[in-house]
């Protein structure tokens, strides 16, 4: 890690960096600066090594009245996986000051968590670094790990020197009262729109897309599952994600609500806390559901489920057959298509997709697992009659998805 300062930066022109202060960056900052200078010869910078890094030795080191800085830029799930470590340190050393340095975008979700005293935004100044007694730097640690049986929490715990029992490897998160109220208002609004009661209705939250296409379940499969489940009596489905994650018009489906881009991350987490089941790809929401004690059904392929959710008792992980792809698990990060996707595209067997292995997890199997986890008696004649009547009531725009839903139920029977 290196420190850099930029004499030309001007806070009056929108720069958040003061020209007289050094800030912490990755080891590649000098290369990045040289490239910037090649584009703009007048660009000024100064880089030096950060030599005051004080690695926390481990849980045996007394942290009473001491400060410890956890550093991880993001994302939401990665930061949440630090929570068991922070909480254990807090329990052993109640007077210890535990701070977090992360991106402002990710830090918003972790305000008012009891195991964090203060949140700093990256890049950190040299003074902010020096005011802490110890540091723990977690950038790239999960990304470098390719142990198929070691979870992210275990990787973080080993680096921090804080041993955790299996029962302690569950994230911790508390939804604020304000966000609880926001989620309640959303549920009340949807109940009026659906003409359904609030109580006695099972709510399923489905995340449409992961932050990376490599970990995203196919959209047509996702909507197939959503329609199949919404056709049951007293079941409501909420689709969540970013703006544009679900571009298909769902207005034909009375009990499916596309909330993508309409609610923020904290309200989404609060809705998960009020749900009966979360269905999602390999994403942060799996970890939030575990922290909140909510059952989840999650899809894995590029990364093995054992390395993600082994210690989550209420998470059912679905993975494709290993025979489908000799490269599984490929541990591929980012957005580029995987090796198998490129091979299939070259052979013209499939269009170029980020992760073809997730297409091997069929909607019928997802539907069957979800029904079992919800405790729905799908064999009841009354339930079957209601289900088919609901599907056939969809308008023209919904019949294509509705017919696929019928195939899904037939396949899972």
Overall description:
38% of the residues are buried. Helix content is 36%, strand content 14%. The protein has three domains: 48 residues, no CATH class; 102 residues, Glycogen Phosphorylase B (Rossmann fold); 236 residues, Glycogen Phosphorylase B (Rossmann fold). The protein has 413 residues and is of the alpha/beta class.
Distance between the termini: 56 Å
Q: Please give the CATH class of the largest domain.
A: Alpha Beta
Indicate the CATH topology of the largest domain.
Answer: Rossmann fold
- CATH superfamily grouping of the largest domain: Glycogen Phosphorylase B
C-alpha Rg, in Å?
24 Å
Number of strands: 13
For the record, the count of structural domains works out to: 3
DSSP helical segment count = 16
Coarse structural class:
alpha/beta
H/E series: EEHEEHHEHEHEHHHEHEEHEHEHEHHHH
Beta-sheet strand percentage? 5-15%
Describe the strand arrangement of the main beta sheet, using strand numbers.
Answer: 10-9-8-11-12-13
Oligomer: single chain
CATH architecture of the largest domain: 3-Layer(aba) Sandwich
- Major beta sheet summary: 6 strands, parallel
Uncertain spans, ≥5 residues at pLDDT below 50?
A: 395-399
Overall geometric form: globular
Average of per-residue pLDDT values: 87
Q: Portion of residues in helices?
A: 25-40%
């Amino acid at each position: 890690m290196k420190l850099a300062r930029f004499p030309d930066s001007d806070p009056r022109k929108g720069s958040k960096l003061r020209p007289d202060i050094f800030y912490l960056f990755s080891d590649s900052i000098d290369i990045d600066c040289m490239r910037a200078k090649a584009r703009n010869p007048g660009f000024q910078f100064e880089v030096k090594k950060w030599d005051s890094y004080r690695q926390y030795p481990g849980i045996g080191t007394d942290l009473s009245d001491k400060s410890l800085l956890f550093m991880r830029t993001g994302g939401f799930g990665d930061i949440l996986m630090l929570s068991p470590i922070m909480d254990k340190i807090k329990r052993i050393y109640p007077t210890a000051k535990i701070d977090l340095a992360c991106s402002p975008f990710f830090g918003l979700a972790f305000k008012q968590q009891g195991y964090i005293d203060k949140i700093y935004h990256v890049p950190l100044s040299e003074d902010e670094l020096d005011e802490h007694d110890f540091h723990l730097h977690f950038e790239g640690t999960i990304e470098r790990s390719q142990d198929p049986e070691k979870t992210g929490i275990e990787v973080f715990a080993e680096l921090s020197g804080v041993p955790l029992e299996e029962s302690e490897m569950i994230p911790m998160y508390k939804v604020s009262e304000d966000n609880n109220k926001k989620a309640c208002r959303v549920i009340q609004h949807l109940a009026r729109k659906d003409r359904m009661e609030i109580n006695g209705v099972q709510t399923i939250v489905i995340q449409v897309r992961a932050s990376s296409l490599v970990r995203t379940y196919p959209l047509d499969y996702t909507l197939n599952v959503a329609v199949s489940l919404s056709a049951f009596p007293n079941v409501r489905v909420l689709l969540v994600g970013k703006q544009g994650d679900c571009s298909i018009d769902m207005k034909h489906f009375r009990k499916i609500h596309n909330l993508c881009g309409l609610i923020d991350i904290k309200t989404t987490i609060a809705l998960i806390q009020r749900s009966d089941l979360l269905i999602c790809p390999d994403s942060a929401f799996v970890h939030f559901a575990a922290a909140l004690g909510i059952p989840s059904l999650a899809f894995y392929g590029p990364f093995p489920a054992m390395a993600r959710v082994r210690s989550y008792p209420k998470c059912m992980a679905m993975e494709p057959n290993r025979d489908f792809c000799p490269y599984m698990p490929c541990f591929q990060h980012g957005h580029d298509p995987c090796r198998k996707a490129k091979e299939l595209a070259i052979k013209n067997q499939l269009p170029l997709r980020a992760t073809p292995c997730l297409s091997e997890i069929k909607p019928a199997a997802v539907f069957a697992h979800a029904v079992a986890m919800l405790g729905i008696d799908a064999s009841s004649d009354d339930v079957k009659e209601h289900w088919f009547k609901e599907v056939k009531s969809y308008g023209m725009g919904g019949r294509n998805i509705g017919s696929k839903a019928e195939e899904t139920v037939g396949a899972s029977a």
